[in-house]
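Folded chain entry
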Amino acid sequence: MRLDIDTIVTDMDGTLLNPQRVVTDFTLNVLEECKRRGIRLIPASGRTRASMRPHMQRLNTGMPYIGGNGSEIVSADHQLLEQLTLEPDLARELCARLAGEGFHVQVYGDDAFYYAKECEASERYKRSSGMRGVAVGDLTAFLSFRTPKILCIGNPADVERLLPVMNREYEGRATFTVSEVNFLEVEPLGATKGEALRRLAAMRGDILPDRTVAFGDSLNDLSLLRFTPHSVAMGNARQALKDEAAYVCRTNTQDGLALFLKEYVL
């Protein structure tokens, strides 16, 4: 069966990117063929704009993209079209609360992320994101600006335990989700990938659910997959996504996204 689509929307880490956090040549070639046929590509990532930019330059989509789990909508030339942010008072409250739970906590500015002190988690994140990291000492005292995202890195069991707790405690004030199993992520209200895609669709007027295929692997992708009937969970996805998706493709170690596009789209 061939899907009649004109837009591909995809998560990055665990989906479009392989475990080495790159787009393989095979996947890139398939995406180039999609582009030649007039099919658009819109990445939607938990990464912020600064971390997405090198990948977007390689992909050369000519399209806007979504960062920060939906807190940022970015133009093809890497300018912010929209940014949702957490107020400084709320962000400080959240940072203190989650640091008290034993998490490494970091917040985001223009092209950098900020945290209390250097540690294994901050070093690992610098390598994986390609972003500049800055240790600032007392993070709550430092935080005087609006931020599009707070990332808390800790034990996966603590992430699973706190996700429903924090969503209840901060209902109507902030949005909590999980990308990687040890990442608890906090965004402003309205900052989910699916809501951002709907806002982008309203801006453009040419992104239609029935003509879109969406790919993802983790809980922060559920809203994205719910945008379209043509939803695809990666073979390495969490079971919650596989249970909801219309299709399950191969894993990101097997170029699953590209193989699905070759079979069902091209």
The longest helix spans residues 156-169.
